[in-house]
Amino acid sequence: MNGLLRASAFIARAHLVRLALSRRALFCALLVLLPAGAAFLTASFSRHSGPAPLAVHIGFLLDLHVVVPLVALFMGSAVIAEEIEDRTITYLFTRPVPRPALLFGRFASTLLVLSVLLALGAWLLLLASSGAQGKVAPIGDDITYPLIEAAVIGGAVYTALFAALGAFFRHPMIVGLGYAFAIEGFLADLPGKNQALTVQYHLRSFIAATGSDAWHRVEGFRSSSFESGTKALSVLASILVLALLLGAWRLARREFVLTA
Question: Where do the H-state alpha helices sit in the chain?
Fold first, then answer.
């Protein structure tokens, strides 16, 4: 176990610098600015949108529903797939390093960069929304904290899922796109218990338990069957851990054959 932790920490440090300076991180940084840009344009040209309604609508419909899974897909799918594409994974596996350390280490550094980007993007969205001219209650802590926390938590869970897909599939980004925007996008809006099969449902439950009533005015958020905040966090944490464990199990047993 100590060897696994040391190897994971070493890989995380080595990958952190490479990732932070990569074009992938720059592209994701631009993506997380989209909600803030949309909020700024709306606040500048519309006199009817209030700060709080603008923040929750764009925060839920654009940031949490689109940007968070998309950025996590770009970052998470590369955790393992990038090593395969760069043809360096067999070199790493010829060293006395536990295979799961590659997944855990690269996931840790990816999560750090992603969390900073998503938290910054959510904060800029709130800042841009605060300039709205509508005469509605201002943005309070019960809007600020749930949005930032949900963005970071959702990014962590999605990244773990997409990183694990890289250990199972040759093209994890394609599989991840299908899951995030076809399966989740469909099930999350269905009535009944089907919603509980999605990450989005548990993120909504967390916000519903900790956020203001303004969140419940967003279309697609009006549900009376949300679970408690504690249960939502427990389920999300379980998904993250299970995804990483399955990915590590597959990585430890998969044979990588790179053709010329």
Answer: 2-20, 23-31, 34-45, 51-58, 68-76, 78-85, 89-93, 99-129, 141-168, 172-178, 184-187, 199-210, 229-253
Give the max Cα distance, the chain.
64
Helix (H, G, I), strand (E, B) or coil at 224: coil
Only one residue has tokens 């990816």, namely 110
Q: Under DSSP, is residue 123 helix (H, G, I), strand (E, B) or coil?
A: helix
pLDDT (mean) for 96-105: 80
Contacts of 201 (CB under 8 A, 6+ apart): 188, 195
Phi first, then psi: give them for residue 21, nearest 5 degrees: -100, 10
Model pTM score: 0.90
For 130-153, write each residue's pLDDT tens digit.
Answer: 877 766 667 888 888 999 999 999
Q: Please, what is the Cα angle at 244 between 238 and 248, to 5 degrees?
A: 145
pLDDT tens digits, 51-60? 888 888 899 9
| Structural contact between residues 105 and 8, judged by C-beta atoms closer than 8 angstroms | yes
